[in-house]
Amino acid sequence: MSIDSRPASAGVASPLRSRTSLIVPAAVGVALVVVPLTALLLRADWAALPQHLAAPTVWPAVRLSLVTTTTTVLISLLVGTPLAWLLARATGRAATWLRAVLTVPLVLPPVVGGVALLLAYGRNGVVGAPLDEILGVTIPFTPVAVVLAEVFVAMPFYVVAVEGAMRQVDRRYDALAATLGASPWHTFARVAVPLATPGIAAGAALAWARALGEFGATITFAGNFVGTTQTAPLAVYTALEQDPEAAIALSVVMLTVSVVVLGALRGRWVR
Amino acid sequence: MSIDSRPASAGVASPLRSRTSLIVPAAVGVALVVVPLTALLLRADWAALPQHLAAPTVWPAVRLSLVTTTTTVLISLLVGTPLAWLLARATGRAATWLRAVLTVPLVLPPVVGGVALLLAYGRNGVVGAPLDEILGVTIPFTPVAVVLAEVFVAMPFYVVAVEGAMRQVDRRYDALAATLGASPWHTFARVAVPLATPGIAAGAALAWARALGEFGATITFAGNFVGTTQTAPLAVYTALEQDPEAAIALSVVMLTVSVVVLGALRGRWVR
Amino acid sequence: MAGTSGGREGLDAHVVATRGTFGVDVTVRAAPGEVLAVLGPNGSGKTTVLHALAGLLPLEEGHVHVGGRTWAGPQHALDPASRRTGLLLADHLLFPHLTAAGNVGFGPRARGMPGTAVAERVTTELAALGIADLADRRPGGLSHGQAQRVALARALATDPHLLLLDEPLAALDPATRTDVRATLAHRLAAYDGVTVLVTHDPLDALTLADRLVFLESGRVVQEGTPSEVVDRPRSRYVAQVVGLNLYAGNATAVDTVLTALGPVVTPGFAHVGATWVAFAPSAVSLFPERPEGSPRNTWPLTVAAVELLGRLARVRLVDGAGHPVVAEVTAASVTALRLHPGTTVWAAVKASEVTAYPA
Amino acid sequence: MAGTSGGREGLDAHVVATRGTFGVDVTVRAAPGEVLAVLGPNGSGKTTVLHALAGLLPLEEGHVHVGGRTWAGPQHALDPASRRTGLLLADHLLFPHLTAAGNVGFGPRARGMPGTAVAERVTTELAALGIADLADRRPGGLSHGQAQRVALARALATDPHLLLLDEPLAALDPATRTDVRATLAHRLAAYDGVTVLVTHDPLDALTLADRLVFLESGRVVQEGTPSEVVDRPRSRYVAQVVGLNLYAGNATAVDTVLTALGPVVTPGFAHVGATWVAFAPSAVSLFPERPEGSPRNTWPLTVAAVELLGRLARVRLVDGAGHPVVAEVTAASVTALRLHPGTTVWAAVKASEVTAYPA
Amino acid sequence: SSAGGTGGGTSAAGGSTVTVLAAASLSEAFSDLAGRFESEHPGVRVRVSFGSSSKLAQQVAQGAPADLVALAGTTVLAQLPEEAQDPARRTIVARNVLEVATPPDDAAGVSGLADLARPDVAVVLCVETAPCGSAADEVLGRAGVTPNVVSREVDVRSTLAKIALGEADAAIVYHSDVVTAKGRVRGVPIPAALNTTLDYPLVRLTDDVHPAAFAALVSSPAGEAVLVDAGFLAP
Ligand SMILES: Nc1ncnc2c1ncn2[C@@H]1O[C@H](COP(=O)(O)OP(=O)(O)OP(=O)(O)O)[C@@H](O)[C@H]1O
Ligand SMILES: Nc1ncnc2c1ncn2[C@@H]1O[C@H](COP(=O)(O)OP(=O)(O)OP(=O)(O)O)[C@@H](O)[C@H]1O
Ligand SMILES: [Mg+2]
Ligand SMILES: [Mg+2]
User: Fold this and answer.
1) Atom 11 (ligand 2) nearest CA
2) If you ran DSSP here, which 8-state letter would residue B77 be given?
3) CA distance C257 to C266
4) How far are the Cα atoms of B103, C240, D150, D154, D191 from residue D94, in angstroms, in the given order?
5) How far apart are alpha carbons B39 and A152 in whole angstroms?
6) Does the distance separating the beta carbons of A190 and D56 come in below 8 Å?
7) What interface predicted TM-score (ipTM) does this complex get?
8) Helix, strand, coil abundance in chain A, percent, nearest 5
9) How far apart are CA C119 and CA C128, in angstroms?
10) Could you tell me the pTM of the whole model?
11) Which end of chain B, N or C, is less surrounded by CB atoms within 10 Å?
């Protein structure tokens, strides 16, 4: 029997003071994020915006960003969700340390992350060298490198967030599913994933956003070639060197796109 | 009555195939992260490590990073937790859009984030100008600026992750707490926070890691002054210019610290 | 709990609320200190009414007045935290992160009671329900019945103005149930607020309640004191719960009522028209042949089911048209009469064992 | 469910397990098709035993053999998914994200049944329990009793080799309970696996079970067929559940047993030494003065509590040393004798109403 | 008395500080010079922040409390506040020329600009908007070479990383970058006729004494020597 979540209050809200003690810090939190964004919007050169957007590099960069970030999120979902689930239910030291290792890309300055990717998948890399010699495949300077860089940087966010959410799924549901004959996979797909949906949505949003903003690892590992590896943030950065106004205009557009995408998706997805 | 979570299986694990279908993608996920890190470790110049670490800029940078990231996490906890809770329980369009706006700093290329912070809190900024004129306080190029930059970049990760976790807290517990006379604050502090602990821990880890790795916004907004605003990633960046080996050595140390901190903290905290 | 709550004017509520496609429209009233038992089939809206009283479900219409104060009215509704209710939910919902003591102390602490007073109160409440030794256990380490007692203690510990108990004793073993029922009876007798008790157990209702309210499909079908209800059930469901055979009929003569079973002879009554006829299962005797002699009501029936309850047996019978009659006979007669589903027997009820009252 | 499960050799289990500081050490055996009811006070380990059988709690020692296969032994234990159990938990735990139909179909689907067969099976199961109309409802939209029936359907839908039911009927209203009990009795009669049924309701146990097992503190205190247990309870708790007064005593003469209440005269028996003495509450008559005449057992007692149950009343009495006696009298006698806590009365029990059997 | 910045300068109570913003490529030389200055002027601290020139310009525009800013190239001067653009406030302290960089093993066998046109030589250049990028385009145009460009890197660091790790076979960077890379890349000079020069202006944002002294040190022969050691040409 569920308790209805609509508040019964039609008017009076008596514990106002207590509500204030939540709203004030929350408002501070909002301000810390919103004030700089507002400043950016206030100072943006709106008149020149159409002209900035007409630049030939804009559309390829936005398209590449959308494609690669979507791929990154899909990879995270496919590969990160089982990982998060196994970690959430794992006990013991090995799991603890694996968990910590997976957070390393969050800590690594992205540029160093890019170097690490080069050392791994580059022409002389641990994996890249045999790949080059045997299959003749080179990864750097291709869109695949962009995706690899984004996955490296963003998937850990997804895994950490989803693991937290999966941990919150009552273990009794797993156990019950097992008695009903559900294999681990069935339990994962039919019980854990649906019950952790809010966390998965949050994790996907985090990963998508992080991938969309990814800059350092991409530039170092994938390079910056219009149409192939120049994502939106690289375009912004490139513009920043010469014309900060244009860069700001571009980022404002990027933000708008992301707010709209996230707002629309999450509003539909969650709740 | 809780179901014991220890597996009853003493040996045989029959649905092996099904377990494999979880383990294979999870292993791919681990590999995507671990391979580049391993490459980094393999290529690091271990012999020169002590010498690199003895550089006079290392210790101030590490100390500043630890202080500012800890502050950032504390601010996120204090301010972001109520925010996440209110968002998790809010309905309606306003909440949906606020949620989307809060993810903007994840998307913003950090350098643009730094510009936004300068536009807001710089001496000519929207908030900074009055602050300077009235109180004589300037924020940029101080450790406060480092914290502001880290909060701007990292807190959204915390809020998004914790909101997901809070959503998963059964609403019936809130309702029940209310009938027991608990004010919103009491419900938040005594029910929502403890029940969402795994998510909060995950969120804090994300925010801490993101803050520790933060580079673009900090260098733009706070500058790169040894001892005052040069955090570990900035030190790595500066070293990278002259001596990539030293930079890699430094990052390896940074990683080790972060793995140890996260491993130890989360092992104790969660579970 | 005596003297702690101000229920001078008791409870006066008219609850109109919906949950999905289901609606309730129920009026409940009780004087201060009264215990109101709410009974009814599964899904009849009992829990829904409790939730509406607690403020967890908004009223669409109606009002809730408790102790002279308006908790909910047409304009205005207090939120759950501002109502002083003690709510026990059927699926107890203990806070999983708090110990038994933490759960029981949650309400007092939330209402600002100082720490030492809370600890004392918690000890008292747990001891009264025989679970003092479980104080430091988390809900995960409690059995079902233990958890339910903790939840009961939690509801009682808030000094509520309105105590709302949803199946408080359902998970208790019979011995504990007797003890807790006695404890609860004692507590409720000393309590000057109103208690609304949802239960499926007629024993709980009869021993604890001053008045019974029966719901079906979100509407009240009968209410009254226990003896009124037990003596004169007015719906098949109520009759089943209090353990009577009940038939609607039409009074045709001073002592005969025409029912679906056929004419039933009664000790006599003083009215005409629609009439209820009731008799106890134990008043039904079964015979292999049509009996001669005093019982004036006899019917040929077919056995539908036999339930053995130790030395007694409950026999469910139906007439040709499927109207049910329940008989209670000794286990010995079951063997003697070879009663099993399908057997045809004669049932007899003395006129003096039949009650008849206007519908 | 007939013929679907291979419980040819029934259940043979010795469960030694711990949960925190609590341990169970229980042996349960049942032939194929048998229904075993497990009863016992709250916290006696009933649920713990079920969990161990289902594989949710590891055995520390012992074994579980079902239908000739070893589910758990000293070396080896199947995980829960590889055991074919149908488990109903006391706090039903429906999957909140699935509809009633989705919950019931979960097991069949997990075991690889094709979609259309699942849908058919689900419809059948829900209809049998009278909740076909709730198929598309999520657990949040079900009442407590409705949810319990869905959970029961879910357990039954898996064609288990071992059916484990933890208080399956506790949340049902009396009318539904009777119906579901009948349905269940029907199902279980046709089922060739073993059913272990945990319940607090003697009626469930007596009507559904072939054998009863009573647990206390994680150990078996009595087991046997319903009539063995009802006739000859061997612990105070068992006696209370089956509704008898029980005293341990010592046979001193051919027809007298020395108990805590004093000497009790019985119809006679053929042994000496430790003896149980039992009589029903309804065999106890109450008198304001010491009665003369046939009853040979009389004691002066003090009323501790009176529970009115409609036309009947249950009176709890204690002797000078606090030994309890329960009497069942008519509500009329309660008024006539002015019975209320503190009244002193004489209780009488005819020797012919007393049962005595060796301890 | 200031041009765009007030600086932490001598006006600050208790010990004076000179705050310098410098282009990342100057970091080794300016760290060295700051140390020298501090030992010559006890009680005066020199704080140097390194970053990309455009970022530094932006920081100054937003009121960074700096006394001096040293930029790579003169184009970003336009982003400085108007007062700071006064030519009297700046001195050119160093110059840089372009050079081809290859991995140390030079597997592709690059011996001059012309080799960059070979299809088997993967070339990385700085992005057009960065000084090293526009300059490289200019040089290549002058030489009539169309290279096989695989990436236009946003800064020198990532350009050099590609060469040092062998991901690309050749790049065009500044001579000082090759010197700073200390053997991890090999430099191939570009003939002066084709080459271009990048000027490093040092802009005085305040008029305090210590900053002026530091600026003087940078322009002094000793300062010049340090800069030349770091791969720059004397102005
Ligand atoms: N979302 C919904 N949509 C449709 N009907 C609903 C919804 N939620 C609840 N109901 C129905 O409301 C009715 C009342 O439920 P309630 O829990 O009040 O019953 P109850 O009398 O407490 O029953 P029980 O004895 O089983 O606890 C039930 O029939 C239930 O199916
Ligand atoms: N973590 C723990 N530490 C100590 N004791 C525990 C723990 N978990 C469970 N117990 C105890 O184990 C005992 C057995 O519990 P179980 O649920 O099996 O009882 P039960 O017979 O099913 O009772 P009920 O009729 O109330 O459902 C209980 O007394 C409970 O308090
Ligand atoms: Mg209910
Ligand atoms: Mg139990």
Assistant:
1) D22
2) I
3) 8
4) 35, 30, 8, 9, 24
5) 13
6) no
7) 0.84
8) 75, 0, 25
9) 14
10) 0.86
11) C
- E62, E123, E128, E154: best to mutate for the A interface, most A CBs within 10 A: E154
Best of B5, B9, B167, B171 to mutate (most D CBs within 10 Å, chain D): B9
Non-local (6+) Cβ contacts of D358 within 8 A are D271, D273, D274, D275, D276
- C-chain residue closest to D214, CA distance: C173
Q: Token pair for residue E43?
A: 């009680």
Quote the ligand 2 centre to C34 CA distance (angstroms).
35
φ/ψ of residue D15, rounded to 5 = -105, 115
C-alpha torsion sign, points C264, C270, C276, C277: negative
Domain extent, residue A251, equals 55-111+145-268
Residue of B115, B128, B223 lying closest to E49 (CB–CB): B223
Structural domains of chain C ordered from first start: 11-238 (3.40.50.300), 244-287+294-358 (2.40.50.100)
What's chain B's length in residues? Answer: 271
Distance from CA of B141 to the nearest CA of E (A): 7
Instruction: Tell me the two tokens of residue C270.
Output: 């003083």
For residue D158, how far is the Cα from the chain centroid?
24
First to last CA, chain D: 41
Is A231 within a domain? Answer: yes
Distance from CA of D123 to the nearest CA of B (A): 29
Q: Residue D233: is it exposed, middle or buried by C-beta count within 10 angstroms (0-12/13-18/19+)?
A: buried
Q: What does the pLDDT look like over B208-249, one tens digit per residue?
A: 888 988 888 888 888 888 888 888 888 887 777 667 777 777
> Token pair for residue C88?
């026990």
pLDDT at D151: 94
A159 touches chain B (CB under 8 A): yes
pLDDT tens digits, one per residue of D279-290: 988 889 898 888
Q: Is residue A172 part of a domain?
A: yes
C299 alpha carbon, distance to own chain's centre: 32
- For D28-83, what is each residue's pLDDT tens digit? 999 999 999 999 999 999 999 999 999 999 999 999 999 888 999 888 888 888 88
User: Counting Cβ atoms within 10 Å, is residue A19 exposed (0-12), middle (13-18) or buried (19+)?
Assistant: middle
Q: Do A11 and C56 touch (CB under 8 A)?
A: no
In a domain, A42, yes or no: no
What digits encode the pLDDT tens for the residues A34-91?
998 888 888 777 888 888 888 888 888 888 999 999 999 999 999 999 999 999 988 7
Interface test with A, best of B18, B30, B32, B252 (most A CBs within 10 A): B32
Which residue shows structure tokens 């050119």? E92
For residues E150 and E167, what is the distance between their CA atoms, to the nearest angstrom? Answer: 10
**CB–CB contact E127 A240 (8 Å):** no
Judging contacts by C-beta atoms under 8 Å, the chain E residues touching residue A61 are none
Counting ligand 2 atoms within 8 A of each CB, the residue from C92, C126, C142 with the most, and so the one to mutate, is: C142
Q: Give the DSSP H/E element, type plus range, for residue C104.
A: helix C100-110
Domains of chain A: total: 1
Identify which ligand lies nearest to the alpha carbon of C142.
Answer: 2
* CATH code of the domain covering residue A90: 1.10.3720.10
CA nearest C74: which of C88, C53, C60?
Answer: C60
Distance CA C167, CA C164 (A): 10
Dihedral sign, Cα of residue A214, residue A215, residue A220, residue A221: positive
* Backbone angle region of B19, left / alpha / beta, with phi > 0 → left and psi within -120 to 50 → alpha: alpha
Strands C35-39 and C22-30 come out as unpaired
Q: Mean pLDDT of all residues in chain E?
A: 86
CB contact under 8 A, B184 and A210: no
Indicate the residue of A1, A4, A8 with minimum beta-carbon distance to C77.
A8
